[in-house]
Amino acid sequence: NIKRRTVRRKEFLGPLEEYVTGTAHVPFYVSGGACIGKNVLLAHFVTDIVRKIPDAVVIPFFAGSGSAQSRTMQQCVLYLIKQLKSHCYLPKKRLMSLPETTADDLKTLHEMLDICTARPLILVTAGLDQLERDVSYDLDALLPQHLPRHVKWICSFRSQEKQLLTALVRRQAPAMGFELPLMREDDMAQLIP
């Protein structure tokens, strides 16, 4: 079963790369069943895209990745803010004026996406369905309806989480993304020695 999840399904890396090099200004989603390989696919994508677009700032966040700091939507937002602050080329005075953590941290995150324009930004938030829901945080609030030109945002969640997909489709018409299917028999044949 571990081998099954680590197959690198190259045909799905293409649409992800096309998205980050394209002109779309909406978030991109990857959905699929539990333990089907969404996070593994995104981990390979992050590794590949760092090599292919070396000037881009790539910020991956894998929910529930064993860290106590990756369990809630607020922790996700604060992590993204912290990473943007460390990679953003802004006058120090401007960075210092952004709050560390307040009720406005979603506003701060979206503001930082707008002002961190020196390099392309690629955010990868994997496993959104694994985050504990905070009362004041939801997918509608996390993902901007339209992204700045220099920002690409890829998120993943289980396809059973219809609420997340519905929220994404409602906000972005047409929604961009795909559902990762079960492995084909020829994929499985590669795993059997």
Helix content: 40-55%
Number of strands: 5
Poorly predicted runs of 5 or more residues: 1-6
Strand content: 15-25%
Count of helix runs: 9
Distance between the termini: 14 Å
For the largest beta-sheet, the strand count, sense and barrel status come to: 5 strands, parallel
User: What spatial order of strands do you see in the largest sheet?
Assistant: 2-3-4-1-5
Radius of gyration equals 17 Å
Structural class: alpha/beta
Q: Can you tell me the overall shape?
A: globular
Mean of residue pLDDT values: 76
Order of helices and strands: HHEHEHHHEHEHEH
Structural topology:
Blueprint: H1 2-5, H2 13-21, E1 28-32, H3 38-52, E2 57-62, H4 73-87, H5 92-96, H6 105-115, E3 121-126, H7 139-142, E4 151-158, H8 162-171, E5 176-180, H9 185-191
Parallel strand pairs: 1-4, 1-5, 2-3, 3-4
Helix pairs in contact: 4-6
Provide an overview of this structure:
With 193 residues, this protein is of the alpha/beta class. 41% of the residues lie in helices and 16% in strands. It has 9 helices and 5 strands. The protein has helices at 2-5, 13-21, 38-52, 73-87, 92-96, 105-115, 139-142, 162-171, 185-191; strands spanning 28-32, 57-62, 121-126, 151-158, 176-180. Strands 2-3-4-1-5 form a 5-stranded parallel sheet, with helices on both faces. Helix 4 packs parallel to helix 6. The longest helix is centred in the first third of the chain and has 15 residues, at 38-52. The chain is globular and about 50 Å long.
